[in-house]
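Q: What residues go here?
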């Protein structure tokens, strides 16, 4: 039952792990398939099997045209879904004309569909191919052989989907490793830079006039006296404090807000489409939650004693008119230093 459930999940997913490479895959597949079909047409000319020659030559010309247009302009001559329909119809025609020999072409077509099309479209086309081969095969091949063909083709489709699911999961895992901090699960500095640069582009919030549309806010956050926590309790406890802090931040923020770890005990919080007053309110709420939360595991908090309580200082910077990402980040850092110099455990707004 577990195996069937895994296969059902595989078929239900649409992890398009090949999407970024589909353009190159399709143009090469079209060129190679066209050459193979032309070679097959050559042997059929010798046999004077003219219907097969006509089908193979027509499909070859379409594939060569598709490859040429994709190499020249990056776009196929026909939408890929329509090309897939043409290939399925051609394959069924080959089965009707050639019988068992035509069935052999349907197997590589199953792979071509999944390489050339988004997964759900490919699954629909492959199921249509299986049904068509089964219906035609009953009349031109025989019941016993047709049933065997159906079972083998269904097995191929299931295995392709399982493999694509594994590839998709591996791809997601690799992406997650490149953008997240392994200790806390927060996003890393590289991912933060990507988001900040995107939001700092002109027009990202609909307007650069903060009187009309709220800007985007950055909260630079630093744990107060974190070195003292490590010295008193050890780095294992310090790491646990970092993990608990990130959990608290992720539970406190709104949908769309992001948490990044930018240094040892330094974090950056990105609040898209958030104005100054809202950003200050969020920052003050976080500061109070941290001060009142038991972030030190197994330790009795002693208010006022360094290393026994966890507090944070926060600098708030709202993206202003004409500012770039560097200025925005620098203003957040400057506000953080002002909060720390003013006594820590407080929020400061960038000038």
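A:
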């Amino acid at each position: 039952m577990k195996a069937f459930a895994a296969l059902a999940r595989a078929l239900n997913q649409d992890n398009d792990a090949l999407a970024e490479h589909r353009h190159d895959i399709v143009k090469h597949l079209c060129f190679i398939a066209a050459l193979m079909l032309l070679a097959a047409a050559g042997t059929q000319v010798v046999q004077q099997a003219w219907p097969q020659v006509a089908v193979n030559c027509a499909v070859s010309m379409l594939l060569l045209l598709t490859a040429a247009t994709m190499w020249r302009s990056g776009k196929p001559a026909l939408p890929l879904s329509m090309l897939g329909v043409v290939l399925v119809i051609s394959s069924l025609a080959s089965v009707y004309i050639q019988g068992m020999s035509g069935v052999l072409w349907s197997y590589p077509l199953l792979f071509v569909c999944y390489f050339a099309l988004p997964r759900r479209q490919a699954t629909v086309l492959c199921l249509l191919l299986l049904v068509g081969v089964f219906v035609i095969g009953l009349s031109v091949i025989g019941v016993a052989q047709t049933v065997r063909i159906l079972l083998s083709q269904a097995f191929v489709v299931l295995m392709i989907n399982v493999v694509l699911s594994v590839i998709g999961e591996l791809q997601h895992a690799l992406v997650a490793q490149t953008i997240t901090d392994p200790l806390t699960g927060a996003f890393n500095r590289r991912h933060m830079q990507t988001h900040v640069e995107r939001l700092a582009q002109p027009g990202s919030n609909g307007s650069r006039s903060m009187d009309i549309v709220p800007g985007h806010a950055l909260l630079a956050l630093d744990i107060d006296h974190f070195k003292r926590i490590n010295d008193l309790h050890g780095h294992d406890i310090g790491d646990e404090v970092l993990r608990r802090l990130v959990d608290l931040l992720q539970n406190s923020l709104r949908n769309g807000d992001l948490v990044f770890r930018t240094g040892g005990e330094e974090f950056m919080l990105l609040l898209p489409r958030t104005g100054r007053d809202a950003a200050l309110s969020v920052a003050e709420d976080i500061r109070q939650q941290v001060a009142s939360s038991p972030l030190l595991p197994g330790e009795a908090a002693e208010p006022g004693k360094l290393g026994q309580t966890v507090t944070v200082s926060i600098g708030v910077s709202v993206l202003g008119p004409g500012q770039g990402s560097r200025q925005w980040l620098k203003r957040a850092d400057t506000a953080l230093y002002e909060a720390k110099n003013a006594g820590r455990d407080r929020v400061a707004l960038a000038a």
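A: Context that may help when evaluating the design: Residues 133 and 246 are 55 Å apart (CA to CA). The chain has two domains: 2-179, 189-349.
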